[in-house]
């Protein structure tokens, strides 16, 4: 159970469903409820498939390129830290140009639910906790994001814009700390001759 939590929490923070909520709300404003549900379903399926494919094939891809896990931990940690700093230091999520036909797949599924943070975190977790546990954590976190989107209007009313931004900033601060931990573990593994 403790191992699963260590696997689940970084992905929960990386998905940042509450942080994406204001953008989701603005993207789907005026869209009929039935169509919004279809968009959410499409986004969840896309996010799960992309995250699982990347988690499953990522290690093989790294080996083909001659990249060690220690290398990827440092690079992934730096990337995550950079993403967090941008999110922490900007007031709002950046608005995107949207194709309403593919709204569920892009940008909701990828990159808003499954973005660089989720991809980097998932490949590192696969190497630490195995594919089965990581896949379960990915699926559960994406489903949670789907539920958050289903209740977007109620959550948005409850938290308000300021509340959603505060939750997002706290989540990014936690992810930044996880990124620093990844960099530290990668450097330790590299110095000890690990892979």
Descriptive tags:
84% helix, 195 residues, globular, mainly alpha, 8 helices
Describe it for me?
With 195 residues, the protein is mostly helical. The chain contains 8 helices and no strands. The longest helix is centred in the last third of the chain and has 40 residues. The chain is globular.
How would you summarize this macromolecular structure in one to three sentences?
The protein is mainly alpha-helical. It has one domain (2-191).
Biggest β-sheet description: none
Estimated share of beta-strand residues: under 5%
What is the count of DSSP helices, taking H or I runs of 4+ residues? 8
Structural domain tally:
1
Q: Give the overall form.
A: globular
- Provide the helix percentage: over 70%
Q: What structural class should be given to the helix and strand makeup?
A: mainly alpha
Provide the succession of SSEs.
HHHHHHHH
* Mean pLDDT level: 86
- Give the strand tally: 0
Radius of gyration: 17 Å
- CA(first)-CA(last) distance: 27 Å
Give the low-confidence spans. none
